[in-house]
Write a structure and sequence with these properties.
globular; mainly beta; Methylamine Dehydrogenase, Chain H; 389 residues; four-stranded antiparallel β-sheet
C-alpha cells in the first residue's frame, strides 16, 4: 500500500470512532472553474452581496502564457462572471479585495509589463470586474506583490518581496499607493540573505502586522518573521519564531489580545513538516505554539478567527514534503486554547491544495484553492463549502 493511500485509510478508520464521528464536518457543495489549461491560485473573499471573488492565474483564457484571472460567484458558488488580464508573458494574481465602492483590487506580478523580470502588478476594477487602471511597481530585479489592502485613509497597501531594492538578496517590501496607483512611499525590511513577506493585516492602531520568513535572522535554516509597523510603514518591532529547521509564517490575524499566525514548521511537531499555529501578544512575544498534521508534510496557508473564539486553518498535505507539491487540501478547526477539534481532508487520488479559508456570514466555512479533480482540464480553481453538524 502506498504512503498516501495508507494515510487516507488510517484517517478513515480514525473517523469511525464515536468522538470523531460526532465532530466531523460535512461538505455541503464544491465547485471547480477552468478551461483546458491550468488554473492555479484561489485566494478568496466573501463579497457584500454574499457571493465570493477569487483570483490566481489562468492558462485557458487571456492573451499570454498565463494571465491574471478574476472570478466572481454567487453565494452557492455558481459563477457569475470571469475576466482575464495580461500580456504575452506570465501574469499572476496573488491577492484580491473588494473595495468600499464595490470594485476589486488585485495584486500579484507580471512579466508582460514593467521594468524588470517580475514586477508587482496592481489592477483596479469596477464591480463587474472591468479594469479601470493598472500599475506596475518594481525595478530591474524580481518584485512580487503577495497581498493587498485598501488603506483606511485611502489608497492601497501592497506587501511582497523585492530583489530590486533593499540590502539583501530579497527583502520584505511594503508599499503605499494612492487611489490611482501612484506610489506614495515604500519600505524594505531584511538582512543580507533572502527575506519574504507573505501576509499582512491592518491593525486596530492603524499600523500593519506582517508575517513571512527570514533567512537573515533567527536560529534555523529560515524562521518565521513577524514585523509590526506604524501607519507610515515604519517598523515598531519585529520578532522571529522557530527552531533549528525551517519555519514560516503564511497568514496572520489580529485578535482581541494579540495576534494569531499560521504557517509551517519542521523544527517542531511529529511529521516531516507540520501545520504551525503561534499565539503572539500585542508586543510580539510568543505565548504558545501548536503543531497539527499527519505523518507526512503538512502546511498551513490561511487562518481566520471563528465566531466561537477558535480558529479555522486551510492548507495542504504533501507526501513529497514540500509546500509546492500538494496532494490533498486540509481544513483544521482549532479551539480558543489551540487544541484541535477536527480536521477534514479533500483530495482522494487526485491533487488539491487549500489556499484560503473564511467563515461565511451563515457560520459555515469556505475553503478555496486549486484541484485537478472533476475539472475541465489540468488544474482548476476549486472551492468547497463545509458545515458543522
Amino acid at each position: 500500500m502506498g504512503l498516501k493511500m495508507g494515510l487516507i485509510l488510517g484517517l478513515a478508520l480514525l473517523m469511525l470512532s464515536p468522538l470523531a464521528a460526532l465532530s466531523q464536518p460535512e461538505e455541503e457543495w464544491n465547485r471547480t472553474f477552468g478551461g483546458p489549461g491550468h488554473e492555479v491560485g484561489g485566494p478568496i473573499q466573501e463579497t457584500k452581496d454574499g457571493g465570493y471573488v477569487l483570483t490566481g492565474m489562468t492558462e485557458s483564457y487571456g492573451a499570454g502564457n498565463g494571465d491574471v484571472w478574476l472570478l466572481k460567484t454567487d453565494s452557492n458558488g455558481t459563477k457569475l462572471w470571469d475576466l482575464a488580464f495580461g500580456g504575452t508573458g506570465i501574469d499572476v494574481g496573488e491577492s484580491v479585495r473588494e473595495m468600499e465602492d464595490g470594485g476589486y483590487i488585485i495584486s500579484g506580478y507580471t512579466t508582460s509589463y514593467g521594468a524588470g523580470g517580475k514586477d508587482v502588478w496592481l489592477i483596479n476594477t469596477d464591480p463587474e470586474g472591468k479594469s479601470e487602471w493598472n500599475r506596475t511597481l518594481g525595478g530591474r530585479g524580481d518584485d512580487v506583490g503577495s497581498s493587498v489592502l485598501e488603506a483606511k485613509g485611502g489608497g492601497y497597501i501592497i506587501l511582497g518581496c523585492t530583489n530590486s531594492y533593499g540590502i539583501g538578496k530579497g527583502d520584505v517590501w511594503l508599499a503605499k499607493v494612492d487611489s490611482k496607483g501612484a506610489e506614495e512611499w515604500n519600505r524594505t525590511f531584511g538582512g543580507p540573505d533572502d527575506d519574504e513577506g507573505m501576509a499582512i493585516v491592518e491593525t486596530k492602531d492603524g499600523g500593519y502586522a506582517i508575517v513571512g520568513r527570514t533567512y537573515s535572522y533567527g536560529s534555523g535554516a529560515y524562521d518565521a518573521w513577524f514585523i509590526k509597523t506604524d501607519s507610515d510603514g515604519i517598523k515598531e518591532w519585529d520578532q522571529t519564531f522557530g527552531g533549528v529547521g525551517k519555519d514560516c509564517g503564511c497568514s496572520v490575524q489580529e485578535i482581541d489580545d494579540g495576534y494569531i499566525v499560521t504557517g509551517f514548521t519542521n523544527s517542531y511537531g511529529a511529521g516531516d513538516f507540520d501545520v504551525w499555529l503561534v499565539k503572539v501578544d500585542p508586543k510580539g512575544k510568543e505565548e504558545w505554539n501548536r503543531t497539527f498534521g499527519t505523518p507526512v508534510g503538512d502546511f498551513g496557508n490561511s487562518i481566520q478567527e471563528t465566531e466561537d473564539g477558535g480558529y479555522i486553518i486551510a492548507g495542504c498535505i504533501s507526501s513529497e514534503g514540500t509546500r509546492a507539491s500538494p496532494d490533498d487540501a486540509l481544513l483544521i478547526k482549532i479551539d480558543p486554547d489551540g487544541n484541535e477539534m477536527w480536521q477534514k481532508i479533500f483530495g482522494g487520488d487526485e491533487i488539491q491544495s487549500g489556499i484560503s479559508v473564511l467563515q461565511t456570514s451563515d457560520g459555515d466555512y469556505i475553503i478555496s484553492g486549486f484541484s485537478n479533480r472533476r475539472g475541465a482540464g489540468g488544474f482548476d480553481f476549486w472551492m468547497a463549502k463545509v458545515t458543522e453538524k
